[in-house]
Amino acid sequence: MYNNGSELLALCNDQNMSIWEAAVLDEMEQAEAMRGQVLDRMTTALRVMIRSADDPGEAKTMGGLIGGEYRKVKAYKEKGRTLSGETANRAMMRALACSQNNAAMGRICAAPTAGSCGILPAALLTGAEELGLGEEGMLQGAFTAAAVGKIIVQNATVAGAEGGCQAECGSAAAMAAAALTEMAGGTPEQALHAAAIALKNIMGLVCDPIAGLVESPCSKRNASGVLNALSSADLALAGVESIIPFDEVVEAMYAVGLAMHPDFKETARGGIATTPTGQKLAKTIRG
Amino acid sequence: MKKVNSLFDVIGPVMIGPSSSHTAGAAKLAKIAGAFAGGEIASVEFHLHGSFRETYRGHGTDRALLAGILGLDPHDTGLRTSFDLAEEKGLKYEFIPVDLGMVHPNTVCFVLVSKGGKTADVTGSSVGGGEVVITEVNGFEVKFSGNYNTLITRHRDVEGVVAEVAAILADNGVNIATLNLSRTHKGREASMIIETDACVSEQALEQIRNLPAMLSLLNIEPVKAGDIDV
Predict the structure, then answer these.
(1) Across the interface, do A108 and B17 touch by the CB < 8 Å criterion?
(2) Of A105, A130, A195, B137, which one has the fewest beta carbons inside 10 Å?
(3) Which long-range contacts link B137-140 to residues 24+ away (Cβ below 8 Å)?
(4) pTM score > 0.95 for this model?
């Protein structure tokens, strides 16, 4: 049905539908499934995502590098004096919760990966609250995100081992930005502008996990990823356009990923993983 | 261009963290491998290669592998506490770091012993996004993903067996997605791996088992994120 952003836009404009509708039809065709089955399956994924953003409490992560961030941010924002505002802090708090739940062997939904699993749930939940939407609105957003993610997988990569963190958290933020834009009533064009802006914002970001674990810096990059999605969606909804079209940004991200040295692609041989502190922590964890 | 067959490969899998390849894929591999024991499992050795050998503790790969052997799905919240479950069930296990040579970095070789004393060796790799490939079973080279219902035969290498099995499946309304046939020596022992679109009924399995040339038959149901309670 569509293999890239321009085909998706042509389809949406031709049929006068949104990206999320095109995604539902695409999945029905690919999976030879009924509409209800496709909606049910995404509902399950959405509910897993929502639950994964709950307070992880004291849940201990495998490496013990992260934990408790949700409660810290929650307590901080409830004091009513923040710099980026209540909404931004609420979104970050949720992304941090997902990351801790994931690292503590809780149940999550990869979106598009486990390492970046906090960005989309945090965006959908916080976006729906700000826009006064319920589960149906979030479900539509999840389909919008899936369509954008599919295009990135087909034309580039979402794997940190192949493209660095830009491919994981960058893709997740792009997916979430498009979802938020459509949830807010933006056009398919605006949604892809939002996705392009989000992806450009962290182009080149390396994947450098301490001790090779999905904990640090992953967790905080999920927090900054959802802010990236929110701000990119706001820009697109305000009418700001990405000068470079979405498809070209995806291609550029892939080229950067391929050119990236293997030390910066999930091998824990570069970036913060090889700082003196990073190495010390890795040594302690590995015993 | 890579082809995405389903949006749920992008939003998904629903899984237990922290890593789709090191946790979800490991659980799936082990669940499939466990089926080859042909009964309740008494003990298992996990021979861990490459990245699995280096990082299996931090990614919970050990817990996921054990959970899979115990029959848990990759999205089962019991993964985290599989050590306790293994103790409860009296399952003996050992994690052994090895070098298996030029294979995928996330490869594990399972050595299984059933309570009936049968042994089985199964090797497979976790290839990303929670997807796996089984590459060797009891010395036979194989290749299947566990995404389909999979039948594995051991039969005498005589004419007509493939046709007989295909006919039974067709009579039972089951379409064959892929079929792979191999043998040790001409006229001795052969093996088929048949991936089917639908699950195969007990009646059809019994008919296949009763074929004169059939030595053994294994049916492995697909490991899918199906009924998730949310």
Answers:
(1) yes
(2) A130
(3) B137/B36, B138/B36, B140/B182, B140/B191
(4) no
The pLDDT score that the predictor gives to residue A179 is 99
Confidence of residue B225 (pLDDT cuts 50, 70, 90): low
Please name which of A272, A117, A154 lies closest in space to residue A207, comparing C-alpha atoms.
A272
Q: Which CATH code is given to the segment(s) B10-138?
A: 3.30.1330.90
DSSP reduced 3-state for A90: helix
Nearest CA in chain A to B55: A212
**In DSSP terms, which residues pair with B92 in a beta bridge?**
B43
Q: Which residues are CB-contacts of A122 (< 8 A; sequence separation ≥ 6)? A: A53, A91, A92, A93, A94, A95, A98, A176, A222, A226
CB pairs A-B closer than 8 Å:
138
Q: What is the pLDDT along chain A (287 residues), one digit of tens a residue?
A: 999 999 999 999 999 999 999 999 999 999 889 999 999 999 999 999 999 999 999 999 999 999 999 999 999 999 999 999 999 999 999 999 999 999 999 999 999 999 999 999 999 999 999 999 999 999 999 999 999 999 999 999 999 999 999 999 999 999 999 999 999 999 999 999 999 999 999 999 999 999 999 999 999 999 999 999 999 999 999 999 999 999 999 999 999 999 999 999 999 999 999 999 999 999 999 87
Structure tokens at A268: 């824990």
Residue spans in chain B of domains classed CATH 3.30.1330.90: 10-138
Contacts of A3 in chain B (CB under 8 A): 1
- CATH fold of the domain at A5-286: 2-methylcitrate dehydratase PrpD (1.10.4100)
Q: Is the CB of residue B3 less than 8 Å away from at least one CB of chain A? A: yes
- Looking at the domain B149-220, which fold is it? Alpha-Beta Plaits (3.30.70)
Q: Do A114 and B15 touch (CB under 8 A)?
A: yes
Domain boundaries, chain A: 5-286
**DSSP annotation string for A183-203:** HTT--HHHHHHHHHHHHHHTT
The residue in chain A having the minimum alpha-carbon distance to the alpha carbon of residue B226 is A41
**Does an H or E element contain A244, and which?**
none
Place of tokens 């070098």: B99
Report CB contact under 8 Å: B79, A105. yes
Q: What share of chain A is helix, strand, coil (3-state, %, to 5)?
A: 70, 0, 30
Q: Provide the phi-psi class of B91: left if phi over 0, else alpha when psi is between -120 and 50, else beta.
A: beta
Check residue B152 and report its DSSP letter. Answer: E
User: Which residues on B lie below 8 Å from A51 (Cβ)?
Assistant: 230
pLDDT at B201: 95
